[in-house]
């Protein structure tokens, strides 16, 4: 499933890059939780949570029903 999620992330990446941000797939758990890291302008954007839930998560769930949620993870 991780490969399918990566393909979908790659499809939406240009939309985030157009606003100066980016997204990186970190992991997909066995129970369907997609973990991502937001980068660039998206990392500090006040609307990042909205984009993550109403943009990324909704798109992934529509295309891949096995996805249960999308979470932003902080990595150093």
- Strand count, sense and closure of the main sheet? 3 strands, mixed
CATH architect. name: 2-Layer Sandwich
Mean pLDDT: 91
CATH topology: GMP Synthetase, Chain A, domain 3
Low-confidence stretches are: none
User: Main sheet: which strands, in order across?
Assistant: 1-2-3
C-alpha geometry: globular
- Compressed to H and E, one letter per element, the order equals HEEHHE
Q: Total strand count, please?
A: 3
Termini separation: 26 Å
CATH superfamily: Fe-S cluster assembly (FSCA)
How many whole angstroms does the radius of gyration measure?
11 Å
Tally the structural domains.
1
Secondary structure category: alpha+beta
CATH class designation: Alpha Beta
Put simply, the count of helices is 3
Helix content: 40-55%
Strand portion: 25-35%
- From the structure provided, what is the oligomeric state, counting identical versus distinct chains? single chain
What does this structure look like?
- This protein has 76 residues and is α+β, with helices and mostly antiparallel strands.
- It has one domain (2-72): Fe-S cluster assembly (FSCA) (GMP Synthetase, Chain A, domain 3), CATH 3.30.300.
- It has helices at residues 2-17, 41-44, 48-63; strands at 21-28, 33-40, 69-72.
């Amino acid at each position: 499933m991780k490969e399918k999620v990566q393909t979908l992330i790659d499809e939406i990446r240009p939309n985030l890059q157009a606003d100066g941000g980016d997204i990186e797939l970190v992991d997909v758990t066995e129970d369907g939780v997609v973990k991502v890291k937001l980068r660039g302008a998206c990392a500090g954007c006040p609307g990042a949570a909205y984009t993550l839930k109403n943009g990324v998560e909704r798109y992934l769930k529509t295309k891949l029903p096995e996805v249960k949620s999308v979470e932003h993870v902080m990595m150093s």
